[in-house]
Each structure stands twice: as C-alpha cells, then as structure tokens.
Amino acid sequence: MFGSAKSFDETEAWIGKELVDEPQPGVDVVEAGWIRRRCETLEFSCPIHEDEKAAKEAGFDGIVAPDTMIWSFLQPAYWKAGDPETKKEDPPKFPPMVMMKVPMPGVAGFATDIEVEWFKPMYVGDRLILSSAKLINLNRKKTRVGDGAFMMFEQTITNQKGEKVAVAKLGLFNFNPA
Predict the structure, then answer these.
(1) In this prediction, what percent of the chain has a pLDDT beyond 70?
(2) Mind listing the pLDDT tens digit for each residue in 27-75?
(3) CA 55 to CA 52: how far, in whole Å?
(4) Which of 64, 104, 128, 158 could lock onto 174 through a cystine, CB 3.0 to 4.6 A?
C-alpha cells in the first residue's frame, strides 16, 4: 500500500512472494451482451465475437471475447449489496488489487506498461479467476517526477476449469514526488 513502507528495501523483500491467498474470481462471467456492447462502442465487427457458427468455423469452441476485455471480466466488484452507501465526500472507490498488499514507501504511483501472454480464449460462460500474483522485479530510479521504483507484477489468470487463460505482467512506478 502506498506510503506503508519506510524504504524500497522493505518492498524488495516481497519479490517472489505469492500475493493471492485464495483464487479471486471476477464478478461477472464472460457474457455475449458485454462483448456485443464493447464491439459496438468501438464499431468493431468480427464474426468470432458475434456469431457462434462463425466462431466454430474459425476453430473456436464458441463465441470468444476480445482479448482486451480480460480486465472487464477479471475485475472484482467496486460495491456489493450490504456495503455502505457512497457519500459525496468519500474518496473514489477502486476494486481491491492484490498488488496493494506489497508495502511501498512512495505516496504516488502510476501504471507504466502491460504485457499479456495468451494461452486460451475467453469463451461466453467462462468465469475468469486471478489465481496467482507476485512482485517479480524492482528497479530503483530517480526521475523528473520523483524518487521511486519501477516494479513488475506477474498475474496468472485461469478460468473456472482451472485452465490457464493468460499471464499478465503489469508495470508500476511508485514514488515520492520531487
């Protein structure tokens, strides 16, 4: 969590530690309506995302979600029934992110890059699950925005059958402003 460590040495001690205590399923299953709406807003027409027969003729088991939708289906809920009502003065809500378990001394941060290796398509009816997450690299750096560290997190995403769907590497720069 930002500001929860005294030094990046403390952060570095987390390299290789598993951050997922138990598999974290996304709140929504892969759903044809979501796929249609995403493709519609992008004015993107591709038969494998729209038509079961076309998807099967192309060698898939059924309609597949575009790869870029992985975060939509993996995302936990921002709010759920029973949570307190949000008030105007409340800070913005963000879904819980396992990488925030890692203590970081900086008070600010931003994503720097993402790389995803795909193993299996996301089919309608699949539920994506965050199965593993680890800090895999930390590189201290003083930049114009401040003194901090570039960190790389690796996440393994599976489906409800336990099949590996993707491995994502997410870069983050955590820092104290100059």
Answers:
(1) 98
(2) 999 999 999 999 999 999 999 999 999 999 999 999 999 999 999 999 8
(3) 5
(4) 104
